[in-house]
Design goal:
Length: about 180
């Protein structure tokens, strides 16, 4: 603590105040600081991380066991192409025979891609095998992919996959959206 010194008199009879020291004992202030830090650490609620569940395919079985590749009928699947500038396209056609007229554009609203997925599932031959194939382009953003994955959760689509887009689909997408081909 700061020390207080008393006045001293000298021989002339005048009483002079002695200059006070400017040194301040910082120990109590440091103790108070640590007490405040401890208080706020114990009373603060930490934010919980937001985690999105992601279904991963099972590990591949040993090669000795022959595995059947199920054929997915076109009515049991829908392909979603994520474009640039928050555009989204979809089709239910053979990817090698796709033309610009077969590529449909929609948006990320409730009446957009969500309705498209639900309607496609209703039209499917076997709704249990209905599969959504997500194909992001180089123009799409991470936010677009997260929005489509959110739609998978909302529409309760348990069968979906993210795959690379083939060259024919890229060309049809560019033709439909009016983007010139990058060579």
């Amino acid at each position: 603590m700061a020390q207080i010194e008393e006045k001293q008199s000298n021989d002339s009879g005048k009483v002079r105040a002695k200059k006070q020291s400017t040194a301040v004992d910082m120990t109590p202030l440091a103790d108070l600081g640590f007490l405040l830090i401890t208080f706020f650490m114990f009373t603060t609620t930490f934010s919980k991380p937001n985690v999105m569940s992601l279904n991963m395919p099972p590990k591949t079985p040993p090669k000795e066991i022959p595995q059947e590749t199920p054929e997915i009928h076109l009515s049991n699947s829908i392909s979603i192409i994520l474009g640039g500038e928050n555009t989204i396209f979809w089709h239910q056609e053979d990817k090698t025979k796709l033309v610009a007229d077969g590529l449909n554009q929609t948006d990320y609203t409730k009446e957009g891609i969500r309705k498209v997925i639900i309607d496609a599932r209703k039209r499917a031959r076997d709704a249990d095998k209905f599969t959504v194939i997500i194909k992001p382009t180089d123009d799409s953003t991470y936010e677009n992919l997260v929005n489509v994955l959110d739609e998978m959760e909302i529409t309760e689509s348990s069968r979906y996959g993210i795959v690379d887009i083939i060259e024919n689909e890229v060309n049809v997408y560019r033709e439909k959206s009016g983007i010139s081909s990058k060579n």
